[in-house]
Amino acid sequence: MFAAHAIDTSDKPQFYHELAAQMEGLLTGEADAIANAANVSALLFQSMPDLNWAGFYFLRSPDELVVGPFQGKPACVRIAVGRGVCGSAVAERRSIIVEDVTKADNHIFCDPDSRSELVVPLVRAGQIIGVIDLDSPTPGRFDEDDRTGVERLAEIYVAASASF
Ligand code: SME
């Protein structure tokens, strides 16, 4: 059985290096995209400090994201491409950090506790298939190390998981 090990979070690049190794172990031998998203959500929520939501939105049609497996409070189910931080990350094909969601005009409030957010696209063969969305109750929780680290985790998830 997989056991998540506590990781020292003081050195973020090292933290993500170890988290990526744990994730690769967690996904080894399993290609089911939903099962892997469920376990990745749990791993991120357990391992990353100071989160109130961690999960997936998948592009189920060209213009709409639908919520996937996550940890945290119940969330908005459908987000149009171009709306919110998640929909903007898809439309702009890039990761987005929002330092203070109360000052952002495109943040969709699903969890009123959220104060900062990181959204990273999931890319398969050049096509965006969804996003990983992380929310924190602390303003400014996410920085460039988090962006780089979670982009690597997104690559591992896509590589391990079959399309659906
Ligand atoms: N805040 C996101 C919506 C999803 S929830 O945070 C879980 C957004 O603005 O796209």
Topology:
Elements (H helix, E strand, L loop, with lengths): L11 H16 L5 H15 L5 E9 L2 E9 L5 E3 L3 H9 L3 E3 L17 E9 L2 E10 L7 H17 L4
Antiparallel strand pairs: 1-2, 1-6, 2-3, 4-5, 5-6
Bound molecules: methionine sulfoxide.
Question: How would you characterize this protein structure?
Answer:
The protein has helices spanning 12-27, 33-47, 84-92, 144-160; strands at 53-61, 64-72, 78-80, 96-98, 116-124, 127-136. It is an alpha+beta fold and 164 residues long. It has one domain: Beta-Lactamase (2-Layer Sandwich), CATH 3.30.450. The protein has a six-stranded antiparallel β-sheet with strand order 3-2-1-6-5-4, sandwiched between helices. A hairpin with a 5-residue loop joins strand 2 (64-72) and strand 3. Helix 1 (12-27) packs antiparallel against helix 2 (33-47) and helix 1 runs parallel beside helix 4. It is globular and about 40 Å long. The model has no long low-confidence stretch (mean pLDDT 95). Bound molecules: methionine sulfoxide.
